[in-house]
């Protein structure tokens, strides 16, 4: 099984990236949060990998930190939550922020993540509330306390993510302003990122 990839970013999409390792391109699924932090095309990157093998697929899921990988594994233990759903949950918030929301039982906040909904959010809290507390404590010990939510007053992360996908500064700034005004200050990073990509792709 592939456990780690160290190479150069070849190309990035809205849900995955291709990593060139000595001439071989590996397609790796990442959360939108991690995608926004990847270096520019052609730059080196080191990813932790979880390999998922099914009868009809062989998929790689990538992570930038041990905490992110551990959280992915925990999410996969929840009933009716598979690898792609787990990655979708992680696309809604920064890792520390998500761990804090789960440990505090913030169902309504988790339910706002795209594709989650109230029932899944309740199940996540029920099954993970106690389990994530160790991750939360370890994160604080390592100095990686939860970051503040992405809001309309903090569009820098969104602009940075769009720039990393190859868009120009004026395009990224304009798209960020449009979606933040449209979705409001309580929108998750995932929702803002998806809408910004739709806006940019529909532009002439």
Automatic annotation (TrEMBL):
UniProt function note: The RuvA-RuvB-RuvC complex processes Holliday junction (HJ) DNA during genetic recombination and DNA repair, while the RuvA-RuvB complex plays an important role in the rescue of blocked DNA replication forks via replication fork reversal (RFR). RuvA specifically binds to HJ cruciform DNA, conferring on it an open structure. The RuvB hexamer acts as an ATP-dependent pump, pulling dsDNA into and through the RuvAB complex. HJ branch migration allows RuvC to scan DNA until it finds its consensus sequence, where it cleaves and resolves the cruciform DNA.
Gene name of the record: ruvA
Subcellular location(s) of the protein: Cytoplasm
One term of GO molecular function: ATP binding
Family: Belongs to the RuvA family.
A cellular-component GO term for this protein: Holliday junction resolvase complex
Name by which UniProt lists this protein: Holliday junction branch migration complex subunit RuvA
Record remark on domains: Has three domains with a flexible linker between the domains II and III and assumes an 'L' shape. Domain III is highly mobile and contacts RuvB.
SUPFAM superfamilies: DNA helicase RuvA subunit, C-terminal domain, Nucleic acid-binding proteins, RuvA domain 2-like
Lineage of the organism: Bacteria, Pseudomonadati, Myxococcota, Myxococcia, Myxococcales
Record-annotated Holliday junction DNA helicase RuvA C-terminal domain positions: 156-200
Organism the protein comes from: Corallococcus carmarthensis
């Amino acid at each position: 099984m592939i456990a780690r990839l160290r190479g150069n970013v070849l190309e990035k999409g809205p849900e995955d990236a291709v990593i060139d390792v000595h001439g071989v391109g590996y397609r790796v699924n990442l959360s939108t949060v991690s995608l926004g932090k990847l270096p520019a095309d052609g730059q080196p990157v080191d990813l932790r990998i979880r390999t998922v093998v099914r009868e009809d697929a062989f998929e790689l899921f990538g992570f930038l930190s041990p905490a992110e990988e551990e959280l992915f594994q925990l999410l996969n233990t929840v009933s009716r939550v598979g690898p792609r759903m787990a990655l979708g949950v992680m696309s809604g918030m920064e890792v520390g922020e998500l761990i804090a929301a789960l440990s505090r039982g913030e169902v309504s906040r988790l339910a706002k993540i795209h594709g989650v909904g109230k029932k899944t959010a309740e199940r996540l809290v029920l099954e993970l509330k106690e389990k994530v507390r160790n991750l939360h404590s370890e994160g604080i010990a390592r100095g990686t306390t939860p970051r503040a939510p992405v809001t309309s007053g903090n569009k820098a992360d969104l602009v940075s993510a769009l720039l990393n996908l190859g868009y120009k500064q004026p395009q990224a700034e304009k798209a960020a302003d449009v979606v933040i005004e449209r979705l409001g200050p309580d929108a998750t990073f995932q929702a803002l990122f998806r809408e910004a990509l739709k806006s940019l792709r529909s532009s002439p």
